[in-house]
Amino acid sequence: RKEVEQDPGPFNVPEGATVAFNCTYSNSASQSFFWYRQDCRKEPKLLMSVYSSGNEDGRFTAQLNRASQYISLLIRDSKLSDSATYLCVVNTVTGGGNKLTFGTGTQLKVEL
Amino acid sequence: EAQVTQNPRYLITVTGKKLTVTCSQNMNHEYMSWYRQDPGLGLRQIYYSMNVEVTDKGDVPEGYKVSRKEKRNFPLILESPSPNQTSLYFCASSTRQSADEQYFGPGTRLTVT
Questions:
Q1: Is A102 helix (H, G, I), strand (E, B) or coil?
Q2: Chain B interface mutation, best of A35, A100, A102, A107, highest count of B Cβ atoms under 10 Å
Q3: Backbone phi, then psi, for B84, in 5-degree steps?
Q4: What is the pLDDT of residues B67-107, one digit of tens each?
Q5: Which residue of B has its CA nearest to A39?
Q6: Which residue ranges of chain A lie beneath pLDDT 70?
Q7: How confident is the model at residue B65 (pLDDT cuts 50, 70, 90)?
Q8: Which of A70, A91, B15, B43 is the most exposed place for a label (fewest CB within 10 A)?
Q9: Measured distance CA(B92)–CA(B76) in Å, rounded
Q10: Interface with chain B: mutation pick from A3, A36, A43, highest number of B CBs within 10 Å
Q11: Is A87–B102 a contact, with Cβ atoms under 8 angstroms apart?
Q12: What is the structure's pLDDT at A96?
């Protein structure tokens, strides 16, 4: 089983739609979680951290379910500019320090 | 402007010809790392460095070397490149080993024939 798993998509949605992505992780000791955005052939950039209580940043909402070991990202009123690949990132503390594990990403295409 | 730079951005080379990809950051970050990104496999860490003269292996270190003689620079060295090292490479830096502060360079697309 992969340490971090995401549905690769692509998710093709019309502009204005609400879309949700899930990500599951296998290590119950993982401590912190993030969503990164990556545009085609560009570098990943932090979108938002994911907190146990859930957090919102404008049209984006991230949630964590530790019991089921998954995190989610909800995008409301999607825009053409939201088209990108969304990477789930899990941070686990190991003997050698923090270990970051990236999911393979979920591709979103927002269409007119 | 705070940034991570990589050079070259694109490189086509032949098997066995040593090459170096440079990485430099101007944010005074202690932590730097190298990743490769391949279709279906996501970003995988090659090497990381927690400070000057401190480096350690990531998940896929075979065939790569790094050095950290100065805080701002973290070059990636391929002593004898092979076709399976054809990939998109990213350098990243942060103030600590935490994803919420990871700053990535623009990437280096390497093709080994």
A1: strand
A2: A100
A3: -75, 0
A4: 999 999 999 999 999 999 999 999 999 887 665 678 999 99
A5: B106
A6: 95-97
A7: very high
A8: B15
A9: 12
A10: A43
A11: no
A12: 63
